[in-house]
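Hi there. Long-time user, first ticket. I'm pasting a complex I've been working with (about 950 residues overall). I'd like to know whether the download I got is complete or cut off, because the file seemed smaller than I expected. Thanks.
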Amino acid sequence: MTISRNARFLLATLLGIGLAFIYIPLTVVVINSFNSSRTFSWPPTELTTKWWGMALDNTGVRDALKWSIIAGLSATFIALLLGTALAFAVSRYDFFGKDVISLLVVLPISLPGVVTGIALNNAFTKQLGMSTGLLTVVIGHATFCIVVVYNNAVARLRRMGTSLQEASMDLGANGITTFRLITLPNMASALFAGGLLAFGLSFDEIVVTTFTAGPGIQTLPIWIYNNLFRPNQTPIVNVVAATLVFISIVPIYLSQKLSTDSSSGGRF
Amino acid sequence: MQKKRLFSQIAVASVAALILAGCSSSNDAASSSGVPDVPMMESLGAGEGQVNLVAWAGYVENGSTDPNVDWVTGFEEETGCKVNVKNGATSDDMVALMKTGEYDVVSASGDASLRLIYGGDVAPVNTDLIANYADIFDNLKLQQWNSVDGVSYGVPHGRGANLLAYRTDIVNPAPTSWGTVFDANSPYKGKITAYDSPIYIADAALYLMATQPDLGIEYPYALDQKQFDAAVELLKTQKPLIGEYWGDYLKHVASIKSGGTVLGTTWQVNINLAKGEGTKVEGIKPSEGSTGWSDTWMISSKAKNPNCAYMWINHIASPEANAGVAEWFGEAPSNAKSCDLTADKNHCATFHAADDAYWEDVYYWNTPTEACLDGRTDAKCVPYAEWVKAWSSLRNS
Amino acid sequence: MQNISNTMHKNPKLRLAALLTAPILWLVVAYLGALATLLVTAFFTIDSFTGNVLQIFNLGNFQDMLTDVAYKNVVLRTLGIAISVTIICTILAIPMAFYMAKIAKPRSRKILVALILTPLWASYLVKIYAWRTMLEPGNGVLEWLLGPIGFKSPGFGGPAIVIGLSYLWLPYMILPIYAGLERLPNNLLDASGDLGAHNWHTFRRVVLPLIFPSLVAGSMFTFSLSLGDYITATIIGGKLQMLGNVVYQNFSINLPFAATIATIPVTIMAIYLWMVRRTGALANL
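Hi, the file is complete. Here it is re-exported in full:
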């Protein structure tokens, strides 16, 4: 590569500044989880571990985590099914209206969450007379998660081409066997990458969730939102956030491990 | 005495409002009073096994937040009613949630309760079925925001006044009037705060009520177009003074503590919290009186679990639970017997729970309707939906 | 099973139908249907007493929206914020992504990708509150750190919103650009260099056009997520509101008016999507 020394140095500096921009606030979150002030005043006059203790005792946060994981996994599952089916249809067939599919799948994530949220809320509760609950949260999340699975799957299908499939069919395997033994294994890492991103999107989603969650279901972001409004508990949200950052190493490590063929690894 | 007259007028107005409401909502079966005819529960049966609540954060604690803060588990064990709760972030949220018909009970503030009653979303409450109702402070019962025509629509929960906070080490002299937050030449320009909700228009109206008698404002939630415009105009002149509008307590307290905010509307609980962290701040009820809030536990007209709903309302009005909530949330309890049960023995004194005189000039949040709530029949008042639009407009003009 | 499979294999139309039915039903009927229902509500009104929606066709809401200068202000302000956020994220992301994709060694590249992904898992709300602590005028973290070199916090308001949103969405800009750069063959850059082009020239004439779809893909996130945000503005926006706040405020008391306001971001995004449709950006998300 013909990149001059100076340019390299400049780029490294800019990267450093970017990383500082990303990590200084996260450091503040971690420090504030030890800050004895209930309102995060800076600099901390006294450090304490009591918020960590309170967070451990707090069963509400564990329930919320459970709901977030259930909702995230369900939404990811639906997004995987729908996104993959759509990707197959688009990359292997010709049909009327194919051009607008990419526009259609991208719509739920590109329109503001507050619009998607009130549209779904209005449809569920006023038009359909449904109860809001886990189901409606999952429907809402799956809708905007389809696009990430779809894009990953389409990209992979395009690179795979059809030759392997044809070879398998020529050798006598039927459609299902071919899909099971050839297509699926080749798509696995792309689907995993898409699925992970979908789960991540669902996990930290708050706006659509606000409008679609019913009684008895409180996802982690909603729990955090509610806790910011009660006078006694605020600092434990920093504990939760700090913990999440540390836990996130697991899925990130997994995704990198599984996507060693780097061009899809690049997309998460 | 002024006060007495006002309330009798309000009673008359309520009747007028009902008649008008009856005319305008032709699609609901309306009783003679104009409120949708929702039957009242006659007797209690066995619990249904669960109850779904809409409540302010901190009103329904089952120990999941703090193992020592729990007035739900005991109730669940005793009655067999499992409690599911959804926290509403604003009064508007709560109304929307109740309209879905999925919830049995709501802790409605005064700016939500009338809307719920007239929308036919909540049922009259048979107070004979609620043993603890007898101990509720009398000046909270059968008020304009929780009853219609002497029929109670819920059980009062707690109350608080919207106070004027000031940093004692910065604001000098100490304020005595709301005028300090509307003073265009205020030395504290950019460090004043106001509550971020359309209902804050009533605070401006309250100030005008005292300072501009020509406008003829009698009740800050009953404003005809001219009075309403004057209040909004006052808020427009106030806007350059504002540093931040606050909605959540955390932002508000942090700002008071840092000195970003030195003067403005607050709640008692915020003052206590900031003081607890060593901030020099006081909250007063200025000479004009103040707005305030009084929440009411109400039961949905479409309740699927009415028996458990009644049991919950009775439970939450009990001295033990009421004291627990009042202390956890930071408000004045509604049950007279709660004061003996609070962990902090000064709690009721701090929050003026039993001090009737203190509440005389507190105007609890109410829902403005087209029929003026102050008894005028010759004028049309600005309804709440218009307050919301005006607030959106004000915040962005 | 075998039979189904055979029938499916022989009949491509059937296979296509099987693949398309569920996703199309979901996206068109459930999602677009809900959206259309909401937008139709914009032409309704409410009972001023109960807040119930009355299905009487009228244009009053649009009239209110168009005649009040406040709504023009909030639209322009929101657009300004969304565009600023997109520009800042682009400027920050390109050098970072370039270093990651073209200079860093494979091992450190992985670590860098992980470092960019990590903040996505810390809660949105917690991060914005952290920025409140950062920007607090007088005793925030930034003034505490940089005060000695004369830094003054901009306080809470427009600049704070732009900083906060840029912070939240930066990873969504870095990742597509990084992926785009990684797909770019190194010898292309070498060739340009061999032909005598300078670094900057190579970047502007060769790299930038090739990663343009990735840039647009990133901007879809930064722009649209900023356009619809209302929580950041509430927490660090000082006195300012954004379009999302107005929609949120009116939602429960006056759904028709909230729907009317919602038509603005929907229209803006529709135009935006239409414009970028041909760049291939939609496949790069």
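A couple of notes from our side: The longest helix of chain B spans residues 2-24. The interface with chain A takes residues 52-54, 57-58, 63-67, 84-87, 89, 99-100, 102-103, 248-250, 253-254, 257-258, 269-270, 273-274, 276-277, 328-330 of chain B (CB under 8 Å).
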